[in-house]
Amino acid sequence: MTTLPLSPEELAAWLRLALARGLRPAALRALLGAFGLPQNILAQPFTALAAVAGAQAARAALAEPGPDFAPQVEALRAWCAAPGNALITLADPAYPPRLLALPDPPALLYAKGRLDLLHARAVAVVGSRNATPQAMEDAARFARSLAASGLTVVSGLALGVDGAAHRGALDERGGTVAVIGTGADLVYPAVHHALATQIAERGAIVSEWPLGTPARSANFPQRNRVIAALVEGVVVVEAAERSGSLITARLANEMGRDVFALPGSIHAPLTRGCHGLIKQGAQLVETPEEVLDALNIGQPAATRGSRGAQRGHLGPKVSVPFDRMQRNANETLPLPLQSSPPLPAVARKEGISSRTGLSADALRLLEALGHAPATVEILAQRTDMPEAALQGTLLQLELAGHLDALPGGWFVRASRSQDGCQ
Prior knowledge:
Layout: H1 8-19, H2 25-35, H3 38-42, H4 46-53, H5 55-62, H6 69-81, E1 85-89, E2 108-113, E3 122-126, H7 133-148, E4 152-155, H8 161-171, E5 176-179, H9 193-202, E6 204-207, H10 219-230, E7 233-236, H11 245-254, E8 258-261, H12 272-279, E9 283-284, H13 288-294, H14 307-310, H15 345-350, H16 360-369, E10 374-375, H17 376-383, H18 387-399, E11 403-406, E12 410-413
Parallel strand pairs: 3-4, 3-7, 4-5, 5-6, 7-8, 8-9
Antiparallel strand pairs: 1-2, 2-6, 10-12, 11-12
Helix pairs in contact: 4-5, 7-8, 7-13, 8-9, 10-11, 16-18
């Protein structure tokens, strides 16, 4: 799928209207419906525009652009000329039809990669930025299965669950779309530069923000409405009580999309958001097959005959409104995992935490364990600890009451543990 070619005059007119302060998307759509091309709008007198969209919209549309407008136009022309880049306007057949149902669809979409994925059946996989190892594994596993079934996996390119979801879909050679909160010429966070390159080559990156727009906290909730609009359902893997992922879930529910949430330990702060969604009507899911069943999508051949597939259809799907869906969730800028305050010199030398009396290896192992059961093999992969050190540290934690050994070689964090990593 390709976009319609734009003349230099038309490109400049689209950018001018998209950047016009005070010109709301609904008013712009009304003007486009009345006058057609954006350059036709700019050629109209104030009275004609005001008669269609109101005086405020008319003033905004006819306001002279700022002194940096010409360089912006030139930068956009150069960006559009680069391979794989595309500017999609509201009037373009390549514009995602699901976004047109929004009350405020973006006037312009800056896209890199496969535009056909913006029209494909899709599911969002979102969650915590400071994700636990188990959540990262779950996000990648769900994304792989969903992509293998032909779905496009949509997420936000953030740290944690988002990145794991994109990588999982790419592992399966499936399509993935990253909806970002910066200009399409930037990568945020910077550590995802290689991942963004892969997505642009095999999937798609989409932004509604002008080129050069840096990461701002206010951009991300607005980004989330695009994620919610592009998909048929949203899977929330892990979320705190005030996670930005809950914004995506609420918006998706208001648009009539399905909302799914993975349950977790009642002792884990990062599962409380998911548990809140489930209480409010989200569908509790434990396997990707349950999402596929709910969306009436056939499962990939590789999973047929598996435990999840043998369950059959889950029965009629019942939609429960999220009447109490929290509406004050705040989206924050992605931040790196916060480190603990520096230890006293003696404690650092002995490898002991001044808060807990545990060694550095023990604290690292507890963090890798998270709040879900894991085997020695799983913990070895997460920590890269030698087997002897790992076994010794597990014994130390068990004797100290920080974890319990389960049948079958599994270990789980003890609910009474007060190690400070909960």
